[in-house]
Design brief:
There is one protein chain. The protein is α/β, with parallel strands linked by helices and 307 residues long. The chain is built from 11 helices and 9 strands. The strands form 3 sheets. It has a 5-stranded mixed beta sheet, sandwiched between helices. Strands 1-2 form a two-stranded antiparallel sheet. The termini are far apart.
Length: 307
């Protein structure tokens, strides 16, 4: 078992903190000693981690993977399936790499829906302004005009998006196992109009704006010496807090905020919105739903509220 520099340095800190919390006559001296210890730590050296940068390719080719003729994800050079533990003992980095690949696969499936299934990407809300957050669904050319039958597909919860049943199956098995494409193609072959919902696309993420808070001591009437002491304590406190955050999350990622999509802020809202603005307006005499996992609950909510 390997022990990192950060573990060795932090050990006496946690011991000292535990001793301080126990109380005792020497509590003040221990506090002073702990502050002295913190002041002598080389934070820059401590913050250096063995974890590689969280900088991943944005294409399948960049990952050196591709889908073969059987729809299986394989390494371009070795022909091997996807390997999750690419970096041994670095679970966080491996998970981030897996998530980055998953985002690429989501876009890849969107392309298949349009190119292979001939579905159209429809933006929602239908009356969205240029600046507001938007989502989308996919529809066949005859989804609203087919007089006989319409099939609506709803996936489950989690990271999956329109056209997917399970990301894990797409990556570890094949496209037929993990996507809705076989359902869509068969439905269209049998004369169905098709609508593919996107119930997990509920918001967009944007970077949080940085808020600059002016120090209250700037406008204070306190003596300059007292203000300087307070500022020094404040800076030391911030330095320790930043040190802890950096240790906990060595590669600080951007702080993001969520902007929810109007009338589509949850799977249930999304299903109702698509019903009201598309499905209910279709000419189909019969509407069939194919739902997986939480998609089934969204469908039940829809039935309760619209029948």
């Amino acid at each position: 078992m390997s022990i990192s520099l950060s573990s060795l340095i932090l050990l006496p800190i946690w011991i000292s903190m535990a001793q301080i919390q126990q109380g005792g006559p020497d509590e003040k001296e221990k506090t002073t000693a702990l502050k002295d210890l913190l002041s002598r730590i080389d934070l820059d050296e401590l913050m250096k981690k063995d974890e590689p940068p969280l900088d991943f390719p944005d294409t399948l080719e960049g990952f050196e993977y591709a889908f073969n003729e059987k729809g299986q994800l394989r390494h371009i050079k070795t022909g091997e399936p996807f390997v999750f533990n690419y970096q041994e003992d670095l679970h966080r980095w491996n998970q981030k790499r897996y998530e980055a690949l998953g985002e690429i696969i989501t876009k890849y499936v969107y392309e298949l829906l349009e190119k292979d299934c001939n579905l159209k990407k429809i933006s929602i809300p239908v009356d969205a302004t240029e600046s507001e957050p938007k989502s989308f669904i996919f529809m066949s050319e005859d989804a609203l005009t087919n007089p006989q039958k319409l099939m609506v597909l709803i996936h489950g919860s989690g990271v999956v998006r329109a056209g997917q049943w399970a990301r894990r199956l797409i990556i570890n098995e094949d496209l037929d196992s993990g996507t809705q494409i076989p359902f869509i193609k068969r439905a269209m072959d049998e004369g169905y109009g098709v609508i593919v919902l996107n119930p997990n696309e509920n918001y967009i993420e944007v970077e949080k704006p940085k808020i600059h808070v002016q120090s209250s001591s700037d406008s204070s009437d306190e003596p300059a010496e007292k203000r300087e002491r307070k500022d020094k304590v404040s800076k030391e406190t911030k330095k320790r807090r930043d040190f802890y955050e950096k240790y906990r999350n060595p590669q600080r990622e951007k702080e993001m905020m969520q902007l929810y999509i109007r009338e589509n802020g949850s799977p249930e809202e999304h299903a109702i919105y698509v019903w009201d603005h598309f499905i209910a307006q279709s000419a189909a005499e019969n509407v069939f739903f194919v739902a997986h996992s939480y998609g089934g609950l969204a469908f039940v909510e829809l039935v309760l509220l619209r029948t």
